[in-house]
Amino acid sequence: MFNAHQIQQTFLACLRNHHRDDTPYPHWTLTNCLPTEVADALTSMPFKPAEIEDTQGRRETHNDKRIHFGVANRTQHPVMEAIAEAFQDKATVDALKELTGAPIDGTSLRVEYCQDTGNFWLEPHTDIGVKKFTMLIYLNREPEAVDWGTDIYADRNTYFGRAPAGFDTGLIFVPGTDTWHGFKVRPIVGIRKSIIINYVSPEWRNRQELCFPDQPVGDASVAATYTPQLHSDESYGGY
Q: What is the 3-state secondary structure (H, E, C) of 93-145?
């Protein structure tokens, strides 16, 4: 059985040992994000990668095939339930607010399990406005997977560098108009696995994706102050 408190304590310890880089925008890299047995359990989840010929550089091209830690999956998979409880907890939320300044009071937890294969790529983009916090945790042990990290850009057309992607490492940023990131085409032998943890504002439409659809985190009264901040070409549940 997986223990939410143990997951939380491991994650809080990794936050204390974070590395921050303010160029080209503030972002944080982490190591040993989850207990080893939890990270290993995620790598062996009983889900097959979606068969997609071309993502067109966007995850939303296969929204119907994406895997989330929603209520149904949490019920069936204890590791999902424990992770969701750990990141829903006030102590975790407070630590993330203190470290990053992310405006996550009144938001909802959304966790996605990603399995990328073949010629997967993501065009440079900024996260949609309803995402108030983004974290990726990489889950591959293969030596070549260290090069499977998120690509960071100074702007849509200016490549900056690549996040480290060793097993159980993480990347955090607070979505904004300057937080350009993507994934350049490169060889993926096998399956690139990761989880994406977001806290999203109440306007999020796809409620079935949320871990606890009716339970905002932090100060729930803040939820009433949120307004959408979407560009015209963005849609909820996209990147």
A: HHHHHHHHCCCCCCCEEEEEEEEECCCCCEEEECCCCCEEEEEEEECCCCHHH
**How many CA atoms within 13 Å lie on the side-chain side of 10?**
21
Report the Cα 33 to chain-centroid distance in Å: 13
151 three-class SS: strand
What does the DSSP 8-state code read for residue 224? G
Say which amino acid occupies 9.
Answer: Q
Domain boundaries, the chain: 4-225
215: exposed, middle or buried (Cβ count in 10 Å: 0-12, 13-18, 19+): exposed
- CB neighbourhood size of 151 (10 A): 18
Q: Give the tens place of pLDDT for each residue, 151-181.
A: 999 999 999 999 999 999 999 999 999 999 9
Structure-block tokens of residue 107: 């938001």
Q: What is the CATH number of domain 4-225?
A: 2.60.120.620
Spatial distance between the Cα atoms of 165 and 185, rounded to a whole number of angstroms:
15
Asked if 153 and 162 count as a contact pair (C-beta separation under 8 A), the reply is: no
Tell me which H or E stretch contains 162.
strand 158-162
Residues 6+ apart with CB under 8 A from 81: 2, 4, 74, 75
**How far, in Å, CA of 128 to CA of 135, rounded?**
14
Place of tokens 């975790």: 92
pLDDT digits (tens, 9 = 90+) for 51-102: 666 555 555 545 557 999 999 999 999 999 999 999 999 999 999 999 999 9
pLDDT at 119: 83
The residue with tokens 């097993």 is 167
